Amino acid sequence: MAVTLTVTGEEHGEWTVLQVAGELDLMTSPVLRQRVHDAVADGRHRLVLDLSQVVFCDSSGVGVLVAARRLIRSCRGRLRIVLPGQGAPEGTHVNRVLAALGVRRLFDVHPDVGSATDDTSRPLSA
Hints:
This protein has helices at 29-41, 59-74, 92-100, 113-116; strands at residues 5-12, 15-24, 46-57, 78-82, 108-110. By secondary structure, it is of the alpha/beta class. The protein has a five-stranded mixed beta sheet with strand order 1-2-3-4-5, with helices on both faces. Strand 3 (46-57), helix 2 and strand 4 (78-82) form a beta-alpha-beta unit. The termini are far apart.
């Protein structure tokens, strides 16, 4: 069985949204890393990573998320991530992994893309 990850992008006003789907692990995390770097190189410093369709994430995937945060902050940009709420079957794995590693509090987490791209909305609590 092949490990797959897809990353698609679209613009939402001033925000670039990257929708990530599949498994984010050692084999696939370079794909997301490259897409984040490409977005920043293109001058997009307001980035949303929609992780609502990520079904698995290991420490390599978490490393890419932390590195993306560091890169965006170095550009004085903003990074937000989308993770479904506790009742949603998808994405809860990523939420648990980030919480277990103690890094969830580093991110502005939103329940959906609409909330993440709305500058008046508040992130979910850690």
